[in-house]
Records
---
Amino acid sequence: MKAVRVILFFAIPAILSILLLSCFNPFSPSIDNSIPDDNIISDQKTIEGLFQNFKYAYTFKDTSIYGQTLSQDFVFTYFDYDLGLDVSWDRATDMRTTEGLFTNSQDLRLIWNNIVFQEGDSLNADVKRGFNLTITFNPNDVLNFYGFVDMNLTRATIDDKWKIRLWKDLTNP
């Protein structure tokens, strides 16, 4: 009887330990199914949400998200220093140009800096904001841009998403 007690004394904790340890694998953590409060894609019902989606589109080279930031009557304008004049293009041209940038670059890093000017109402807003953009085509071909955007943002109702209607690039070469 004493031998049975000794065996049970050691066997029961050993069996419980094996059962408990077999349910835990430190190299295979459980899946986190919680939804974070800071979703990576915004609903664009705020101006900051629009800029967040724009940054997401550049970071992940996602033309579908990028296209959702532009209104149907979108116009992009920049100053061509070689020609000495402003050059503009429409939404379709901008989408093709941006798709080419996304396809031909290895990495895009966009940082939105502070908004330096903002005025408007709940349906139209003019925003001037600084940015830093690093385009890596390959390790030996990296371009850094520091500048400002002057954007006219619009939406039909306060329940709609903000869209970029006019974008003037104020970057110096």
Note: The chain has a mean pLDDT of 87.
---
Amino acid sequence: MTAASLTTDRLILSPPGAEDVDAMLAFFAAPRSEFYGGPLSAGAAWEKFAAYVGQWTLTGYGLFAIRLKGGGETIGLAGPFHPSHFPEPEMCWLLASDEHEGRGYASEACRAILEYLFTDLGWTTAVSYIDMANVPSRALALRLGARLDPDAPAMIPNCQTYRHSAPEGAA
């Protein structure tokens, strides 16, 4: 398996690894991880992060670590998450700390990843399960072009399903 690495104007996106552990364990221990099942104990956070890392080996795709160019600081994760009980991959995103909010990093990362999924991998669709209380993520989904999909099941309690569709001619 050859894992993808993507770059944008400000970011490097690649499969997560050991260099991302500290940032992700800190995220999952913090209150800001509430929409990702947190805050979690160190052991539970390790298991969740290990599942994200391992998905690349099992499926050939997964969440990308979001790292800043020029220093490599890990600031979050974004990409398709597909546990075995989900009917289709979920496009998700997170920023590890408040200091990176409001700078467009999540949008920049998600746009590059969606383009990769639709153009390079030939996907036609992906969903995002977004908690109804997570106003910033709902707004980002809409900015990315996703629309509420009332016919798709919401696999996570208190979430609505947003559908991302490939632009015409993307595949």
Note: Residues 42-59 form the longest helix (18 residues).
